[in-house]
């Protein structure tokens, strides 16, 4: 959708994004098949079906936000907001909007994945923490040795993206719980300069970290849903 609005060609899924989308699409087929067989009297599969559909939509929206942030970043040339023309300030504001939307969506999707894993594998994470995150669910796998292989994959993915995800998580927490993340950057910059001119942070680095966040989410989804599909085929049911 955003590519069309920005005059770009529609996206063709490839790489990590395609792998995640394909894994979830295959799971939807399995859920549909199960609902057709036993009519899903308790609506368990229907619920998981809807959740998975939501994850597919959320991943699509995350990728679009990342793309839009990178698109508008290219239009920002000045190194400080004080040096920007009104037009460039508008482009910078659009970049900030989609950048923020992106890093918030990264963790929202991970938490949704955690909810799916907690439900399917009956990890009972709510007994440990009422309002749990993906990372809380990941720790619960220590008590579910039956799915140790999946836990190892997910932990490896988490650890391989530790640095960029830590930065994105800090910005997400700042944005949601304290103050706007870019305001925090501005305050820090004002303390570092006598002129009072706020220098922009490295926007290229921010975009790169965002892309790494998208990759981490994609790999997490691929590992999770590929494992679900594998277990399904092995047991013919969850």
From TrEMBL:
Top-level division of the source organism's lineage: Bacteria
Alphabetized InterPro entries for the sequence: HEPN_Cthe2314
Span of domain Cthe-2314-like HEPN: 51-229
Name of the protein in question: Cthe-2314-like HEPN domain-containing protein
Source organism phylogeny: Bacteria, Bacillati, Bacillota, Bacilli, Bacillales
């Amino acid at each position: 959708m955003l590519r069309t609005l920005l005059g770009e060609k529609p996206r063709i899924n490839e790489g990590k994004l395609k792998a995640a989308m394909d894994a979830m699409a295959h799971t939807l087929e399995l859920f549909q098949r199960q609902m057709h067989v036993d009519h899903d009297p308790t609506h368990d599969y229907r619920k998981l079906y809807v959740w998975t559909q939501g994850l597919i939509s959320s991943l699509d929206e995350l990728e679009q936000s990342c793309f839009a942030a990178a698109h508008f970043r290219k239009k920002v040339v000045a190194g400080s907001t004080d040096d920007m023309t009104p037009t460039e300030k508008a482009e910078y504001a659009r970049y900030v909007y989609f950048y923020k939307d992106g890093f918030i969506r990264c963790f929202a999707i991970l938490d949704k994945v955690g909810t799916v894993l907690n439900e399917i594998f009956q990890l009972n994470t709510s007994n440990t923490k009422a309002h749990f995150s993906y990372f809380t669910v990941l720790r619960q796998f220590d008590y579910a040795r039956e799915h140790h292989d999946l836990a190892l994959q997910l932990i490896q993915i988490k650890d391989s993206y530790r640095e960029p995800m830590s930065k994105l998580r800090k910005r997400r927490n700042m944005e949601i719980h304290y103050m706007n993340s870019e305001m925090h950057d501005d305050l820090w910059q004002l303390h570092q300069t006598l002129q009072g001119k706020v220098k922009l942070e490295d926007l290229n680095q921010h975009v790169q970290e965002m892309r790494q966040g998208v990759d981490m989410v994609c790999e997490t989804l691929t590992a999770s849903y590929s494992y679900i599909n594998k277990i399904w085929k092995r047991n013919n049911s969850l």
